[in-house]
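Continuing the batch. This is chain 6 of the set; chains 1 through 5 are on the previous pages. Same settings as before, nothing changed between runs. Recording input and output for traceability.
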Amino acid sequence: MKLKQRCYQREAVDTLWNDIHNKDGNPLGVAPTGVGKTFIMNALIRKIARKYKRDRVMSLTHDAKIIDQNATAMKKMWKLADVGIYSSGLNMRDKRNRVIYAGIQSVHRRAEEFGKVNVLFIDEAHMLSPEQDSMYDRFISCLLEINPKMKIIYLSATPYRLGQGYLTEHKWVDYVSFDYTKTEKFNWFVDQGYLSPLITKKAATEFDVSAMSIKGGDFNKKQAEEISNTMENNKAVVEECIRYGMDRKHWMVFASGIEHGIALAEMFESYGISAICLHSKSERREEEQAKWERGKCRAMVNVGLYTTGYDFTPLDLIAVARATQSTALWVQMCGRGTRCVYKKGVDISDQTGRLKAIKKGTKQNCLILDFAGNTRRLGAINCPVIPAKRQKGDGNEGEAPVKVCPQCETYAHTRASVCAQCGYEFPPPDTIEKKAGQDDVMVRETLEPSTESFDVISTLYRVGVSRQTKQYYFRTNYATLSGSFTKGDYPESAYEAPVNRFRSFWWKALKKKNGRPSAYKGYPKTAAEAVERAPDELKDPTKILVDMNCKFQTIEEITYE
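Output for chain 6:
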């Protein structure tokens, strides 16, 4: 059956295509688990290979199963594709194909053996390490020595790393091409029938993580397992799963360690629930996994597995008995349940058909049971707490800015004054209650911006320097009685090159301060020239509208009178 490209996948491919042709630097594409990130990547690879007959493309990731999945998907999409695989785990070492799917562990010291690569894709880009001489750093540097013009395209569902911030802070990543994980877009996928809703129930027990120390930015693994793996906690996990999951067929439980996982599996069995425990040392892992997928046992307890690259659509209950400080890990664990099950025979070519097929299918949603306070600490899957780059001496970042409506139990931002779901008016801010699993794992409304209007006293133009690309760009500071607010324009592009967006939105459109059209002097060729000419050629605003809920206090609107 021919795979049909969805509207948003076509949009993502077109956006990346335009960016790599019209922008400097290397783009990052962000899409949630379950919407076809592999399809987007392969469709763009096919488009590049068809357009440029001599170009060679490589897709790089960290896991042999993901490599195999990506290569297999490409062969289904494009039967004539010249596809090769280089992965020790798959016992394949192709080097001369036009399209190569490779594992970073296998190739990081062999860049010169592949020769010139024109476009490099980094799948699961959140695995990038900022460390000098890391495997990715070494391999990319060598490829760039061979071809300095090589484009690098990054793809991830979680574009951030624990203690290292957003991926655009990495030296190889320059800008975000598209981000489909934002709350509004994520909910669009659910409403359109492309993603399965994630729901939560109040769990009776939440592990006490207060005594866990932090090591490497996350909870100490040994302490986390010791605290989690108690008779009382394990009994609570099993009883809650039974209480809420008896009408569900495939349970996945994330444990804190191997001993914890084995103890949980034994506890499930003692309650009459067939269960297996899988971990890195499991001798019959694939056999046991297949048994669970066929429905021969209900609960699969796993330790450190199945967080990325595992696609099992029928998964309908996820129990998280593992505490973490990693937003990426938390979102990836929840993301295992976002894939939809459509009733066979129902037309899913439009929204109505997809929602009907889901309703008649075997999975209407996926239940998340959080026993470790991750939702409260790290936020919802479609509104997570983005980790900041860790500085020396940093400890626990605290809890996510969330609260729950006591009337309808809908998740809301701590600064929301009214519940968008039922209209309940929140009282003045108070301490968030510490009850297990009471926060929704998926926000059902876009966080309402808290906008404020400010009178502008003065305007200051200056030259900015991008931390990622080291390129100069145009910045404007608006001084108000409540402080100064900054707006940066097009930091991803160098002013030394033509910048059409800058031209069309600034020098071509704005007038002098006195309101008369400016005499045409041509466009500024550098950021410094733009700053010098701005006071005479750009109007001073009278008011600005600022979203104070946004982390960086975004200027939403500028008024000129």
